[in-house]
Every structure is written in structure tokens, then in C-alpha cells.
Write a structure and sequence with these properties.
The chain is an alpha+beta fold. The protein has helices at 3-20, 22-25, 45-54, 56-83, 112-136, 161-166, 169-204, 242-249, 304-325, 334-344, 349-375; strands at residues 30-33, 36-41, 141-149, 152-159, 205-215, 230-234, 237-238, 257-262, 265-270, 272-274, 277-282, 285-293. The strands form three sheets. Strands 5, 6, 7, 8, 9 and 12 form a six-stranded antiparallel sheet that branches. The chain has a four-stranded antiparallel sheet with strand order 1-2-3-4. The longest helix is centred in the middle third of the chain and has 36 residues, at 169-204.
């Protein structure tokens, strides 16, 4: 069953409960307006204030650096988005992320559990950082909460808009840039964790072939190969490690019929066209290195390293990707407001607002076009 159906079922259940209990839920901070459900609270303002007041100077200078990082990221992401139009029908650069769902056109699959936890870190760290910086800039927070837009979860920190508009340009820049800077920081921390785990794994495990992690839906391998199989050879070409595996699979063309030897038997697979390169044969599997424990007396404890590595890989990937996406110069993303503030140093409002609106419209169309190209 495709993961999207689980989201749709959950969405239907949530909305049935929300509409049935609407009168009671509205008394507990819920705002229900289809297709958006918002839950607002003031309880976490004390925690955010404590974190902000712990070291105001640190947060200020940390976000001064964050402003520079955000503008560099803005330029880089805009260039990547525009340049991706050249290969949009081969490898679209933009995709909707739903853990556990194969999104058309997306080159990656985000597993449900680790993807969901990683996505939660993106939302919590991003929004809390906005709140921490708002308090640091003496801008009151009206509310904090969670939201559900259709089947997409989210979080928010709602600063006092009137006070935010009155604040200096630098204060507003620090507030708008706080979320992305926090995501990038968490991504770097996650990368260090993954690097540490990756360094330790070879000391405890030996590489022994390639293991099938996932079968892509409606692919040539579906119904033939299974998750957990260890690939030993393809067309009598022995698979010794990940490098030999990549060299072997890249040598096949669409339409080739190949024999795949596994630890569970030998199977024949007729290859299709690779979605990212139609000249290369497509098996429709995602695989990774297969390991065996060097010292079996250690039991199952060392295997937890792989779960840790997977979780922090997705914390790194989603925090970096979504954090940088949020800094694109598109309103209502943070990057759109930061571009507006930057232009306001030299231009009057009647000039910089049309510029930002035009840039937002163009980049938004590129994103929509990329999403449509992915589905096609």
C-alpha cells in the first residue's frame, strides 16, 4: 500500500474528529478552518524566554553571522533553482517531502520513522529559533503552535507584527534569518554525528556484499526481488563491495534481461529506463552495503549504530534542504522578507516591493513547473 494512502486515511480521521469535536477544541486553542487546523498556546513562551535570556550576546552575534550565511544561501539556492531548469525533465530539483511516500520525480525516498523524526526537528528548531531571536530583540511573542495544512504538518511562532514592523532592520533580519541558521547548525551537528558513527562502523563490522533496502513501486524488480536480500552477483559478475556493484549496474541498458544471484536464490529481471537517465538500465531497487559483525559475542547492541546513522543522515538532509529552501527570495518565505529589508536600504517602498513581488512570482513559477515536471 502506497504511503500516501496512510496520510489520506489519517487526514480523513483527523478531520472527522476535528469537525465532530470542533466546539470543544476551540475552547482549547484550536482554530479549525478547512483545510487548515491550528493549535495555539502561550505555555512555551516561558521556555523560549529562558533560552533567549541565557546569553543574549551570544544569540545576537550568532545571528549576525546568520544574516551573512542566509544571504549567501539565498544567492546559491536561487542560482541552483534557475540552473536546474536545464535538466528539469530528467532530475527535478524540487519535490514535496512526505516520509514513507514515493514522490514522483523525487530522486530520494524518505523512510517514514526516521524521516518523520527528522522533519519534526526541522520544524521545532526552525520555529523555536524565530521565537528565541524575537525575545532577544524585545519583540513579544503572541502565540506558539502546531498546524496541519491538508496532510502537511507544520509549526509556527507568532511574533507581534506591529512590534516587528517597528523594530530596526538588523533586528528584523536576525529574526527572519534565525530559523534557517538554526537548521543549518543542526545539520552540521548531525553531520558530525554521522561522521563519528561511520568512522566506528568499520572497526566493528566487515562489509559483505550489497543488501536490498527497498523495492521501488511499479519497478522491474517489484514482485521479483525482496527487501533484505543480499546481492551476490549480476549476470555472473561477482559483487564484492559497493564500488563493484555500482560499476556492474551502470553497464546495463534498458530492455536488458539480467540474472540476479542473491542469498535467497537467482532471479531474472527485465530492466526498464532509469527515471534520471533513460540510457541506463533501471532495476528499481535501493541498496546499501551489507555488513556482518566481527565479534558476535557483542550481541545485537552494535547494530543500533546503523539506526543512529540513518536518523542523523535524514536530520542532516532535511534540515539543510528545507532550511535553505526557506531562504529563497520568495514571499512569504523568510528569504522574501530578508530581500525586502536588504533593498529597503537603498530603495523606497514603492520600488522595492514590486521588485520582491516580481522575483517571488518568477521563482514560484519555477518551483511549480519543477513539481509538475516531476509528476510528469
Amino acid at each position: 500500500m502506497n504511503g500516501i494512502y496512510y496520510y489520506l486515511i489519517a487526514f480523513a480521521v483527523i478531520w472527522v474528529l476535528a469537525l465532530t469535536l470542533k466546539s470543544k477544541l476551540t475552547n482549547h486553542g484550536f482554530e479549525i478552518n478547512f483545510p487548515v487546523i491550528m493549535w495555539k498556546t502561550e505555555r512555551l513562551r516561558g521556555l523560549i524566554s529562558k533560552i533567549s535570556n541565557f546569553s543574549p550576546k551570544f544569540w545576537k552575534w550568532y545571528m549576525n553571522l546568520g544574516i551573512v550565511v542566509c544571504y549567501i544561501g539565498m544567492v546559491a539556492m536561487t542560482w541552483i533553482l534557475i540552473s536546474s531548469l536545464q535538466t528539469v525533465f530528467d532530475t527535478p530539483s524540487v519535490s514535496i517531502i512526505l516520509p514513507g511516500v514515493e514522490m514522483p520525480g523525487s530522486p530520494i525516498y524518505v523512510p517514514f520513522l526516521s524521516g518523520f523524526i527528522a522533519l519534526a526537528t526541522v520544524l521545532v528548531v526552525h520555529e523555536f529559533s524565530h521565537g528565541i531571536q524575537s525575545i532577544g530583540e524585545k519583540i513579544p511573542i503572541k502565540s506558539i503552535g502546531l498546524l496541519l495544512v491538508a496532510i502537511l504538518p507544520g509549526a509556527f511562532v507568532e511574533p507581534d507584527e506591529d512590534e516587528l514592523k517597528k523594530a530596526s532592520r538588523m533586528s528584523r533580519l536576525r529574526v527572519y534569518g534565525a530559523g534557517t541558521m538554526a537548521n543549518i547548525t543542526l545539520a552540521l551537528i548531525a553531520l558530525l554525528v554521522v561522521s563519528g558513527v561511520s568512522y566506528e562502523i568499520p572497526h566493528l563490522f566487515d562489509e559483505n556484499g550489497i543488501e536490498v533496502n527497498r523495492i521501488v513501486g511499479d519497478s522491474p524488480s517489484e514482485g521479483i526481488l525482496k527487501e533484505g536480500m543480499v546481492l551476490q552477483a549480476i549476470d555472473n559478475k561477482v559483487i564484492n563491495d559497493s564500488e563493484s556493484y555500482m560499476n556492474i549496474v551502470s553497464s546495463f541498458k534498458p530492455g536488458d534481461n539480467v540474472s540476479v544471484k542473491t542469498d535467497q536464490g537467482t532471479f531474472n529481471v527485465g530492466l526498464g529506463k532509469n527515471p534520471n537517465n533513460e540510457s541506463v538500465g533501471f532495476f528499481g531497487i535501493q541498496a546499501s552495503k551489507h555488513f556482518v559483525l566481527k565479534d558476535t559475542s557483542m550481541g545485537s547492541i552494535p547494530w543500533i549504530l546503523f539506526s543512529i546513522a540513518e536518523l542523523f543522515q535524514w536530520i542532516f538532509t532535511l534540515n539543510l534542504g528545507i532550511g535553505l529552501f526557506n531562504i529563497l527570495p520568495i514571499k512569504p518565505l523568510d528569504g522574501g522578507y530578508m530581500l525586502e529589508i536588504l533593498l529597503s536600504y537603498r530603495l523606497p517602498e514603492n520600488q522595492y516591493k514590486p521588485i520582491v513581488n516580481s522575483v517571488s512570482a518568477v521563482l514560484a513559477m519555477v518551483i511549480v513547473f519543477s513539481l509538475i515536471a516531476g509528476f510528469l
